Amino acid sequence: MRVEDLEVTFDVGRGKKLHAVDGVSFHVDEGETLGLVGESGSGKSTTGMAVLRLTEPTAGRVHLGDTEVTGLRSRRMRPLRKRMQIVFQDPYSSLDPSMTIGQQLDEPLKVHTSLSKDERRARVDEALDTVKLSTRYTTRYPNEFSGGQRQRIAIARAMILDPELVVLDEPVSALDVSTQSQIVNLLLGIQEQARTSFLFIAHDLAVVRLVSDRTAVMYLGQLVETGPSARVYDAPAHPYTAALNSAIPIPDPDRQRTRDRIVLGGDQPSPLNPPSGCRFRTRCPFAMPVCAEEVPPQHPLEGGGYAACHLHTHGPELRGGSVLQLVEGGHLTTPLVSR
């Protein structure tokens, strides 16, 4: 799947427009998981919905394989629906309370395949087995299951058509920690077997680090950093990424107390009136005058990916591209680092 210059704009009245997604480009290779992270309101979920045409893009292109998805009429979109699926955040509202689990898993097979009733029943049983649920559950209703079980059912429904791409929109954020671990391990196992591409949307960076091959970091409708997950988390090249990383809890209490943290000042600006130049500059501890004057270019990074930050062209030399050395070296322009 390839996304090019995606934009999603909403009219909010009185001639104002909200740019929820602004010029976003990325790709997800076969069998790969791309993690899309950022604060609430950054545009992550809107991006996922636009990729699937559940929200109409204002501009840009989305390609699924060799097929351009954007601009297709609904009649031509229907055959593509089986190739791309979604798992929503809330397992309590994503299932129809009036239908049995068997009916809900059977429905996409009836719509998108020509399988016989017996063949569909076998596929439903196989899907439940894949997510480690008993085939006896087909006659039960959603209210008879826990949140974790409901999310397993939602995953089974998404995977039953063998899609090429699955958008996972905060799939574990509504679950308790132990259930989160089970669902994450389940997804990893399913992907290894099916070679499906995942767009994993979350604000919990610890989870995204575990599941993703690459990570894209989003702020106020734009991508500010992309790259291999190991590099993004261990050597972040954008101050916003470094701040998000520093908020990830560390199990060791001694390390947690003594590590450097980047504490961001203020709130995320309104997408109705984003700052000029770099949109992150109003909260950035390394902001320079150029940040208010020019939109930062996408600076390519060793090992792949980029960081949209003026530090790489106007700031002190960054060995390996990581901004962490600025925290350690005391190059702050505002006192927003705490221990």
CATH class of the largest domain: Alpha Beta
Class from helix and strand fractions = alpha/beta
Low-pLDDT runs of 5+ residues are 333-339
Named CATH topology of the largest domain: Rossmann fold
Largest sheet: 8 strands, mixed
Instruction: Specify Rg, calculated over alpha carbons.
Output: 21 Å
How many DSSP-defined strands? 14
Number of domains: 2
Topology (SSEs and partners):
Layout: E1 2-13, E2 16-27, E3 33-37, H1 44-51, E4 59-64, E5 67-68, H2 74-81, E6 84-87, H3 101-112, H4 117-130, H5 147-159, E7 165-169, H6 177-194, E8 197-202, H7 205-211, E9 214-219, E10 222-228, H8 229-234, H9 239-246, H10 253-258, E11 261-262, H11 289-293, E12 298-300, E13 306-308, H12 311-314, H13 324-329, E14 337-338
Parallel strand pairs: 3-8, 3-9, 6-7, 7-8
Antiparallel strand pairs: 1-2, 1-4, 4-5, 9-10, 10-13, 11-14, 12-13
Which short descriptors sum up this protein?
339 residues, alpha/beta, Rossmann fold, 2 domains, 8-stranded mixed β-sheet, 4-stranded antiparallel β-sheet, 13 helices, 22% strand, disordered C terminus
Descriptive overview:
The structure is a single chain. This protein is an alpha/beta fold and 339 residues long. The protein folds into 2 domains: 2-212, P-loop containing nucleotide triphosphate hydrolases (Rossmann fold), CATH 3.40.50.300; 232-338, no CATH class. It is 34% helix and 22% strand. The chain is globular, with a radius of gyration of 21 Å.
Quick description:
By secondary structure, this protein is α/β, with parallel strands linked by helices.
